[in-house]
Amino acid sequence: MTVVALIGFLIAGLMGTIRLVRGPNLADRIIAMDVILVSLMGAIAVDAARRDDPANLVLLVVLSIIGFTATVAASRFLTLDQTEESS
Amino acid sequence: MSIVAEILMIAGSAVAVLAGVGLLKFSTAYARFHSAGKASPIAFIIAAAGVSLELGTSAGALLLVGVLAMSLTLPLGVHLLFQAEHRTGDNSHLIIDELTRDQQAAPAADED
């Protein structure tokens, strides 16, 4: 039954990749990457439940910090040309 | 596998699919950020609740650290993304734009 959960996270990841490909500007691509990362984390958690061993749950903390750092760095990069003009 | 854990996991993946649908269907960038930035951590929290029911307390503690790490940091990243989009994108479609009004009203703050 939990295959349905895995398939749901897969669909969410595919939708994120569609937005990643089609996204008009960079900010949409960053948020699409975030959605893909979160669906990956959900799939890892469900897979740990299916396999019944909590070995790779540590991955989730690493993935969330990586996702956060990537989003912040990319949004900083987005406003790079703005900060030069105002300073 | 207990039925409650399965239901929670499927509900979490359903919310994740809703985040994906919100990402694709909304027209303006702000609506997309809002749906993706809100729905994705909630999806992970619901799925993690189901998984922790299944794997017991030691794995639940690990999942709690993951949920806390995500729910403390993801909104901040999405907020920065909103700000970056507000600066670079065109805000003509906004009906009420208080950030631009406040920025223009507070030029003194930039000097120091």
Spell out the blueprint of helices and strands.
The complex is a heterodimer of chains A (87) and B (112).
Chain A: H1 2-22, H2 26-51, H3 58-78, H4 80-86
Chain B: H1 3-25, H2 29-88, H3 98-105
Summarize this entry quickly:
Chain A has 87 residues and is mainly α. Chain A has 4 helices and no strands. Chain B is mainly alpha-helical.
Oligomer class: heterodimer
Would you tell me the overall average pLDDT of chain B? 86
CATH topology of chain A: Helix Hairpins
- Tell me the span between the first and last alpha carbons of chain A: 57 Å
Structural class of chain A: mainly alpha
Number of domains of chain B: 1
Helical residues, percent of chain A: over 70%
Please state the overall shape of chain B, judged from the principal axes of the Cα atoms. elongated
Number of strands of chain A: 0
Please give a structural write-up.
The complex is a heterodimer of chains A (87) and B (112). Chain A is mainly α and 87 residues long. Chain A has four helices and no strands. In chain A, helix 2 runs antiparallel to helix 3. Chain A is flat, with a radius of gyration of 16 Å. The termini of chain A are far apart. Chain B is an all-alpha fold and 112 residues long. Chain B has helices at 3-25, 29-88, 98-105. In chain B, helix 1 (3-25) packs across helix 2 (29-88). The longest helix of chain B has 60 residues, at 29-88. The model of chain B has no long low-confidence stretch (mean pLDDT 86). At the A-B interface, helix 1, helix 2 and helix 3 of A face helix 1 and helix 2 of B.
Give descriptors for this structure:
heterodimer, A: mainly alpha, Helix Hairpins, 4 helices, B: elongated
